[in-house]
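Final paragraph of the annual report: two paired records, presented back to back.
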Amino acid sequence: MATTPSKPALWNKVRKFFREVRLEMRKVSWPNRQELITYTIVVIVTVVIVAAFTGLVDVIFSGALNLLRRLGG
């Protein structure tokens, strides 16, 4: 029969986890305001380009499939 971990041991692991998370977050190089604005614009432009490309491919394939359906039916 397997033994379950005791609550104090689990609590110590949780505390250790959050302590390590806090230490790692202090090492993060956070962007300044201008970098954040630039990165946000890059992401929005990229999303718009990918959405337009996906929409264009969808229209082309839909048209091709409709044409094939009319020719085959």
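The closing record of the year follows.
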Amino acid sequence: MVHNQDITRLRGNKLNQFRRQELGFIFQDFNLLDTLTCYENIALALTIQKVNAKEIDKRVNEIAEKLEIKDILKKYPYQVSGGQKQRVASSRAIITNPKLVLADEPTGALDSKSARQLLENFEYLNQKLQATILMVTHDAFTASYASRILFIKDGKIFNELIKGNDTRKQFFEKIIEVQTLLGGDLNDCF
């Protein structure tokens, strides 16, 4: 259920509209279009929504500023680093302020500063815009930004943690404790 609507019943144009307006995707392998500049890749979702050019420019520049990629907006994906591609892909996913972001290892190709900036944008989407972030990660630091974690081992839910009133540091320590229970193999944890 999203917005009190059973999305499994959506078909045709209603399903397309839901995907266009309510979903953001961050893929592990970026899925950027090589024939478009980084700016154009980010702007694409807004263009499809028929947002006017002035608003598109404003929003692309705002998100590029937040994720520190303004200097690469005129470049093509093959001209930038993996971390920069991930920030472009993340910008594209969150520029429409979606209600649901599906993220597969969104910080995997990022340095710690860039990862923190992206995760802070996720927090803003979640807390201020009421968006749900469904993220797959093996990284305890990244997971510590979540409010709820499901640990999966051998295809089954092993444990659940809810942040509650814990600080991020306290939550991180609980995550590490569960990883220890799982045998410390980070690849089986999240």
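The mean pLDDT is 89. This concludes the annual technical report; the extension proposal builds directly on these records.
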